[in-house]
Design brief:
Helix content: under 10%
Strand content: 15-25%
Distance between the termini: 35 Å
Largest sheet: 7 strands, antiparallel
Radius of gyration: 22 Å
Number of helices: 1
């Protein structure tokens, strides 16, 4: 696992830094776990664009992920580590004793041949890939794929290189430090998977050219100052005109670039002990 720098044979290759994919051990996905994935191009059910600058991109198929890990006390063997075009993390294909297969997010230390287990009350080792309730995980342990409601399946800490840390336990809640440094209360019966997620070098990538972003379905965004006044509040002016005051704003006149958009009475405020960025 690492990153690969390329010789500057072209102007785009000069700045390209990508993963070397050395951790990948299985090149073709499991057919039984593939589903069609339809693209929207940023359009809603009425055909109107609600998310700008989306479209195109390489065709993908969705890998059905097991975020619930609800096969309790059934030991599974890791068959291989695969690339998933739909997420930044690598995925691991596991097989249960009866032959059933499933995809899970691949932790950093997980390798083919390793055994993983999901449990509720059984004593198991604190090995990467094992899943258990927060009440059974010791303080200071790194975890990922954390549930927010018992039995709903992991919803947070699922991207490449991330992990959360259990800071304390009090009554029926655990205090978990998120990758953003936010400290949050989570029911102690919620389950999490042990270990840090692999592909840590994902944030060190440099795409090198605009085309690589187009392959992922992201089209180039146009600056407001480059538009006409009819298209954007920043538009118009002679030559290179600045944004002006009281800017910056969105194309629809709403303040942007740093404006906090979180609702002040959001339902999850009561679960947040320490906000990210708090001093």
């Amino acid at each position: 696992m690492g990153i690969k720098r390329y010789k500057p044979t072209t102007s785009s290759m000069r700045f390209t830094v990508l993963s070397d994919f050395s951790e990948i051990t299985k090149s073709k996905p499991e057919k039984s776990l593939l589903r069609p994935l339809k693209k929207t191009g940023g359009r809603n059910v009425n055909g109107r664009i609600t998310a700008r600058y989306r479209g195109g991109g390489h065709k993908r198929r969705y890998r059905v992920m097991d975020f619930k890990r609800d096969r309790i006390d059934e030991q599974a063997e890791v068959i291989g580590i695969e690339y998933d075009p739909n997420r930044s993390a690598r995925i691991a294909l596991i097989q249960y004793p009866n032959g059933d297969k499933a995809y899970i997010i691949a932790p950093l230390e997980l390798k083919p041949g390793h055994k993983v287990l999901s449990t509720v009350d059984k004593e198991v080792d604190m090995k990467a890939g094992n899943c258990m309730p927060l009440r059974r995980i010791p303080l200071g342990a790194a975890v990922h794929n954390i549930e927010l409601k018992p039995g709903k399946g992991g919803q947070i800490v699922r991207s490449a290189g991330t992990s959360a840390q259990i800071m304390a336990k009090e009554g029926d809640v655990a205090f978990v430090r998120m990758p953003s440094s936010e400290v949050r209360k989570i029911p102690i019966e919620c389950r999490a998977t042990i270990g840090q997620i692999g592909n840590v070098e994902h944030e060190s990538r440099s795409l090198g050219k605009a085309g690589r972003m187009r392959w992922s379905g992201r089209r180039g965004g146009v600056r407001g100052v480059a538009m006409n006044p009819v298209d954007h509040p920043h538009g118009g002016g002679e030559g290179k005109a600045p944004q002006g005051a009281p800017h910056p704003v969105t194309p629809w006149g709403k303040a942007t670039k740093g404006l906090k958009t979180r609702k002040k009475r959001k339902y999850s405020n009561k679960y947040i002990v320490r906000r990210r960025g708090a001093k």
